[in-house]
Predict the 3D structure of the following.
Amino acid sequence: MLIIGIAGGTGSGKTTVVNKIIASLPPGEVAVMPQDSYYKDSSHIPPEERSKINFDEPAAIEWSLLVEQLKLLKQGKAIEMPTYSYLTCTRQEETVTVKPAEVVIVEGILVLTDPVLRSMLDVKVFVDADADDRLIRVIARDCIERGRTPQIVIDRYADVLKPMHCQYIEPSKRYADLIVPQGGSNTVAINLLTDYIESRLRHGNGRLEESCATE
């Protein structure tokens, strides 16, 4: 099993990179564990207070559960991955069955910040993108998918997303084996990554060499 961590700022294009990796491999060879599925349950907090939760700091994630379930996959066991609602800011009753696969991708803004999880990753990727481009994507996504107004998104970006990016996410870039500039539009870096994954699947062993890093 090859375990890949893909991190990067909100709106950097991580999902695009993940989807391109999945599309390049045979069906069923990739399992994805989104970091967002492991947000701590907030159902005990009054609804009016949930909107104030900082979802962009490591303390918001139940890392122990993510690590435990990743270990189970590595042991060849299926897991019931939790689901989280951005509309209610609570963990849902429904779970998603994830079966072991040749490649497991753990994706999320804070994936490279947790030392225990980081030690389990065979390949660590940081998807980089210009701050303005990320803000534009966040506004479009949150307004359409999460029912927020542009002003709410902009205020949250200034008050939470930007400072948390500078404090936690950007510094985690130093742990990356591969940096993908320009997000999901960087075809060269993505092809390099997918070629490496295919090579690992063919030959079984090896880690990403430092010479492959794209800055």
User: Anything to note?
Assistant: The two ends are 27 Å apart (CA to CA). The helical segments are 14-24, 47-50, 63-74, 115-120, 131-145, 150-169, 187-203. The domain at 2-204 is CATH 3.40.50.300 (Rossmann fold).
